[in-house]
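Amino Acid Chain and Its Fold in Token Form
===========================================
Structure side: the spatial fold of the chain, written down as a series of whole-number tokens.
Position: the record begins directly beneath this header, with no further notes in between.
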Amino acid sequence: MFKFSLKIAGGAAIAALASVAAVASGPAETPYASTAIASGQFNEAERMLQPASYADAQDPARLINLATIYLQAQRFDKARAMLQQVNRLPDEALVLASGASYNSHDIAKAMLHRLP
């Protein structure tokens, strides 16, 4: 199983699971996309996160990042679609910047629960 770093904007891992501010980084994403999300450059981050291949399109970290962008832009239907896609994929471990580990399904479910 692959492990991905998950950077949480604004606080601890538990807060991320209770909020919609998760910023993930994985192999399909350049480090600049995480930076763009953290600095509020959502259009640029969205452009960077467009999949280059089918494998990229199935990357839970990329999907969680896109969902975060769509949530910030109040594009709730698109965010919901990304998070539902994460839940349809095999569950993957995501290692938080703090070192704590959560699985992709738990993060997606927590974010879906917080959608209006």
Q: What stands out?
A: Residues 3-114 form one domain. The longest helix spans residues 60-72. The mean pLDDT is 74. Strands lie at 3-8, 22-25, 93-96, 101-103.
